[in-house]
Amino acid sequence: MPTKRSGPLVGKCPKCGNNIVLKKPFYGCSNYPECTFTLAEHFRKKKLTKTNVKELLEGKETLVKGIKTKDTQLIHATMIGLQHCKI
Fold this sequence. Notes:
It is a single chain. Strand 5 and strand 6 form a beta hairpin. The longest helix has 8 residues, at 50-57. By secondary structure, this protein is mainly beta. The two termini are 23 Å apart. It is 9% helix and 38% strand. It contains one helix and eight strands, in the order E-E-E-E-E-E-H-E-E. The strands form three sheets. Strands 1-2-3-4 form a four-stranded antiparallel sheet, with helices on one face.
């Protein structure tokens, strides 16, 4: 059965193995509604790059630069990963 697609393909879903596509303002599984995996397009108001998203979907940590704290002090970079997320 072919999967539905609504945006640029960025990787494989870690939950079901189908395609992950950009659906604005998030990345989602092309197998929705059977699979409900999603990933926000922004992390702490910083847009994730396609490289960030691909690394996350591959189970890797990724470096996100220019993250700001709540009190607006700039943090140069932070590492994020999906390992602590419920999939």
